[in-house]
Amino acid sequence: MLAQYGYVGILLICAIGFTVIIPLIPKILMVMGLIPTKKNPTKEGQYECGMQTIGKTWVQYNFRYYFFAVLFVLFDMLTIFLYPWAVNVTGLGVGGLIAVGIFLAILIIGYLYAWRKGALQWK
Amino acid sequence: MIMEHIQFIAPEISLLCFALLIVLLDLFITQKRVLPVLSVIGAIVAATFIIVIWNTPPVGLFDKMISIDPFGLFFKLLILAATVLVILASHNYVLKFNKFQGEYYALLMLSAVGLMLLVSAINLITIYVALELSSISLYALVSFLKDKKSSEAGLKYLILGGVASAILLYGMAFIFGLTGNTCLTCIAEYVRGMPFKDLQEVPALMIGLVLIIAGFGFKIASVPFQMWVPDVYEGAPTTITAYLSVASKAAGFGVIARVLMTVFGLPVWLHNDWAMIIAVLAAITMTVGNLVAIVQTNIKRLFGYSSIAQAGYMMVGLAAMGLTMGTKENVTGGLIFFLLSYTLTNLGAFIAIIAISNKINSDEIEDYNGMIKRSPLLALGLTICLISLAGLPPTAGLIAKIYIFSGAVNMGLAWLVVIAVINSVISAYYYFKIAKAMWLGTPVTEEKVDASWPEWLALAACVVGVLALGVVPGLFMNLTTAAVRIFGI
Amino acid sequence: MPEITYSITFYLMAAIAVAAALGVIILRDVFRAALSLILLFMTVAGIYLLLHADFLAIVQILIYVGAISVLIIVAIMLTRDARQGQPLGKIKWVAGIVALALIGVIAWGVINTAFYLSSTPPLEETVKPLGNLLFGNPGYMLTSEIAAVLLLSAILGAIAVIREK
Fold first, then answer.
1. Phi and psi at residue B121, in whole multiples of 5°?
2. Nearest Cα residue to B319 out of B275, B263, B286
3. At B59, which helix (H) or strand (E)?
4. Label partner for B230 (CA 20 to 30 A): which of A19, B48, B85, C47?
């Protein structure tokens, strides 16, 4: 099993290497003197990235996003319980189904609650 | 197998069902008056189930996940009693939350479910999940007022509680790593079979033990994990402060006693070690609590420190309990009796405080001046509870202290009892400071202070309980000795 | 996997994890600290993989990298000017000494203990047995249901606490 994940590791190493090396290529070429380094304001400016920002780029987000973030975490948790069950539905049989049913029923009450209280609504 | 076991967790299931019902009803009805009624009914139904299964022999359920035994059932009844009294006392208080009353009751009940599972859990995993269930509900309840102090209290409780959980988990990881088991009795078996003569030979066990004591120490507010108490008690809604100071603390003692007694009970060198840790912490805890309480001017803060000091006395009982393992002595009922007495007393005091602060909107002790003229009954009730907290006759507090201290002396902890008695004398000073303000102070206004009937009911129940425990303690002694018999003492 | 590759991978990940954890507490910029935390979560997932706990590794990435980090980052973006954390001040030294002492004690404990070693080889397939443990009989069914109640109380609590007054 580990050997298979080893390929993921190799991919990861390649990805990290790629992202580190590519931005470094111009610098390396510059140091080697292969490309000219003549600076001017237009060249240093942003290229096709819209207008220059005015004021701080840090804006305060609406706190309503937080409702979604919190609910996302909670329902994300659901998947880690449901997935192992779903992989082995037949093996777990009726007992497992009932157990998952109770599990889901409790959480659906929570979902219903969030819905009716307007936590999913953008006012 | 499952079906046979479910009847034994009927108390938790019924309480959970009522909590779910409250969540659902709250969404669809506008008449919120039903909700407290339902939650009280839920708690009473759960208590009935507990009484029905009271006499069954101890049994481990769901592959040693939780156990049903008199010890756990006693704590469950205590938690349910505290929940009912807090709900009754919340009658006027919840009006502050207008649209969010349903959540208040539901979270209170869910936290009670968590605490009930916690005291009967006999598996590290169940202990952790139940602990988190009760804690998460309490984090939300502490910050329920949404004002500056309450939010700050909630945040502090959340962060420190999270750190405490992490420490506890780390300790559990050490124990699991050493023994390869999560069920308490299996761990105990492994520990008893170890060929060691000293804790230093098994560092992992030592670190695990210390970290677990630290993690639960947060829950019972023992020094040095008591920093959160004053701020959280002051900022939280007063009803939740009352709940935290009794139910959460009682469950904390229940679970720490169970873990220490079951897992680390034998061999002898092991329980001697942790009993000494607990004894030293007890001495520091009560001294710190009492000394700092003297200078407090806010009554909720004062009760925060007072509850730290009381936790110190309870830890005396816990230490004595540890030392009894393997001996013929029977001093273990002391902790249980003390918890019973403390729960009733502290709740009674808090119910009076809730009723008073509803009217005068202040928690400063100087605003209690002349309360005897403004509301004789509330002042009288609060005074009786203060007498009991100080440990004077004819109340439960005296009997509880005698019971717990005599047990400790029998187990050779005389030095600790001397410290505890000195502390009791110190504590009388600040308890009587409140009483003096109420009886001898001159009131700012002559305006009467009254309470609603559920508050009167709850206060009356507490005061009657405190006096009954004080006058005829014999009735309850049998109960408390039965509750600890399961540890094989 | 040969022993040597295993060791190299483990120590590499452990080193990155410790560095990332240090980054979380040392970096003054809260946002960078959060990103460092994500790196920490990733390396921990890698260590889980090395321990043959592949489902746990996926869960680690799904929940911690996917959800918890989102929560943290959203929380940072909700603030107006809290990008710079508070400098630690004098408490830094006390905390450092306490932390070092704790590390010392724990390292001593870990090195000097004969931990319980399971004799069964690691499972090839982990998800199915996990499903059996979570919802099967015998298993941790009760704990799973308590976890559902825990999530419910978290939903109730979260919505009640972030309500508008």
1. -70, 135
2. B275
3. strand B59-61
4. B85
What domain count does chain A have? 2
Record: contact C158-B62, CB cut-off 8 A: no
Burial label, C19 (beta-carbon count in 10 A; 0-12, 13-18, 19+): middle
The residue range of the domain holding A89 is 58-123
Element (H, E) at B357: helix B333-360
Complex confidence, ipTM: 0.90
**Chain position carrying tokens 């598996």:** B123
User: Is the model's pTM score more than 0.80?
Assistant: yes
Backbone angles phi, psi at B59, to 5 degrees: -145, 140
pLDDT in tens, B4-20: 778 888 889 999 999 99
For chain B, the C-alpha Rg in angstroms (whole number) is 21
Alpha-carbon distance B363 to B372, whole Å? 17
Partner chains of B (3+ C-beta pairs under 8 Å):
A, C
- Long-range own/partner contacts, residues B475-480 (CB < 8 A, 24 or more apart): B476/B337, B476/B340, B477/B333, B477/B337, B479/B74, B480/B74, B480/B333, B480/B336, B480/B337, B480/B340
Q: Give contacts of B20 with chain A, Cβ < 8 Å.
A: 106, 109
Whether A114 and A80 share a structural domain: yes
- Residue B297: phi and psi, rounded to 5, are -115, -15
Q: Among partner residues C118, C149, C156, which is closest to B113 by beta-carbon distance?
A: C149
Are B318 and B220 contacting, i.e. CB atoms less than 8 angstroms apart? no
Domain identity same for A105 and A73? yes
Q: Is-contact B432 B296, C-beta < 8 A?
A: no
Reported as type and span, the H/E element at residue B61 is: strand B59-61
Give yes or no for a cis peptide into C138 (omega within 30° of 0): yes
Q: Is B3 near chain A, with CB under 8 Å?
A: no
Q: Beta B59-61 vs B66-68: how paired, if at all?
A: antiparallel
If asked whether residues A66 and A102 sit together in one domain, one would say: yes
Q: Do the domain assignments include residue A67?
A: yes
Residue B272 has pLDDT above 50, yes or no: yes
Give the CA distances from residue B241 to residues A114, B80, B415, in Å, rounded to whole numbers and listed in that order. Answer: 27, 16, 32
Q: Which two tokens stand for residue B345?
A: 């007393």
Mark out the alpha helices in B53-147 (DSSP H runs): 70-89, 101-120, 124-142
Residues of chain C contacting B68 with CB distance shorter than 8 Å: none
